[in-house]
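Hello,

I think I submitted the magnesium ion job twice by accident. Can you confirm which output corresponds to this input? Input:
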Amino acid sequence: MSFTLHGIPVSRGIAIGRAYLIAPAALDVDHYLIEPAQIEGEVGRFRAAQQRVHEELNVLRADLAADAPTEMGAFIDVHMMILNDVMLVQETIDLIRTRRYNVEWALTEQLERLSRHFDDIEDEYLRERKADIEQVVERVLKALAGAPGIVDNVHGACDEMIVVAHDIAPADMMQFKTQTFQGFVTDLGGRTSHTAIVARSLGIPAAVGVQHASALIRQDDLIIVDGDHGIVIVDPAPIVLEEYSYRQSEKELEQRKLQRLKFSPTQTLCGTRIELCANIELPDDARAAIESGATGVGLFRTEFLFMNHKDRMAEEEEQFSAYRRAVELMNGLPVTIRTIDVGADKPLDSMGGGDGYETAVNPALGLRAIRWSLSEPQMFLTQLRAILRASAFGKVKILIPMLAHAQEIDQTLDLIREAKRQLDDAGIAYDPNVQVGAMIEIPAAAIALPLFLKRLDFLSIGTNDLIQYTLAIDRADNAVAHLYDPLHPAVLHLIAFTLREAKRAGVPVSVCGEMAGDPALTRLLLGMGLTEFSMHPSQLLEVKQEVLRSHLKTLEKPVADVLASFEPEEVQAALKRVALV
Ligand code: PEP
Ligand code: MG
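Support: Only one job matched these inputs. Its output is below.
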């Protein structure tokens, strides 16, 4: 019987194949009481399984491909830490000793207890760390059962398989790379789960948070994963299958055709040169940036380097080598490094306690991004020194998120001067002319633009937050997602105003929010005067194709009509004319 499941799209594309189910061992363990004389033997069984998983993780780490995202090593470290954590190990042994539970029972009981603590956490990112503990327990249970590890299990599976699981550890996800699976579906996970992050970096169609998928889908069921929309179609009707096969081949064909554009210069039909840069999250993403033909990194979101550091921030050396790596991989092309943007939906493990973060009623309006950096000047100086040091190895620009006030800009510039002074004192090289820019992502910043134009070298419009703060829509809240509208006249006016005023003042300005990577909006942005876009590398060639087909002069009138419209139907009608000229 055909049915459709809905989840969260995390990695684009269409996959069609047979379901390969990975059953969670935790659902199916024996529960029995042991005799007092068996206690030490049972503890020994637990220790042996723990040791086996230890070895398994070591093998995974040693096998990591050279091009694996750098955070993969960090995921394995986190799992190693959990494997040795007293909360898991000692408490499980206590349950064996005091309650005389068999080890599988003790382990799943302890997992339940830990899970309950996590369920009470409001923060999405931290709540999702529960999945890491479940994945470690899963490995130990498999080791106790003498079962092969998840990865060993799937050797020999054919390449038309789509993995369906309750959850997949990121480390396993990396191993799947060599198995040429078509796609992934998991019951658990959100946009910020590690599994989602890795699926995206592997470029495999995936949907997560597809509730009960692993219970409803059976081994070998024919399934379609629509990674663009987060839809999973099980046992599709022949006509649906045909439609998706057609869409899949169209997409492949389009992708192949687009590859031809990679090395052509990006300019409009009237000869205006347009810069298309890449957004990256980890230094090694710079490879994908280069491969997509990007002419620089327009946004390096550095906060991902700071995640998985339990009780401390990333040290200066560690940060420096990450920034330097991205700069060197870009081989002379500019790299715009944004200072840490934590808070709201991206808290750090080490945040909280004393900094007001934990108690913030609305963290999106709280101590986020530059506000947090200015409240932690030593940490901020460390990051600034690390970025400046990387500027000795290529062209680096510093980008500051979430600025709104003149004094915030001034304090930031003071701290940059201080970081330079410290490097001078230590005799360490950096580019003294490194440019400093601001994200324009709070409506107040756009409206008070002269404050920024006077003080900064360049601007970058962060449309994701500009929309969130202009429309008072929490970008992470599904309940109001339908009101999150890039085409709201207020949003368009703020963008157009920023582009016009920056141009008039001779200050370079780019757009680095999701709007820049949406080919349906490319002409509108070009018509508003945008000449620098920054987006995920996978979107770059589609946007380039739109640029190559556009003529700025003919866009003037229809784009002016869009900006003069307030009624949604009028905006839509004018937008259609933008697409047709
Ligand atoms: C934005 O807000 O548009 C942006 C690019 O930054 P982030 O998505 O990291 O907040
Ligand atoms: Mg932002």
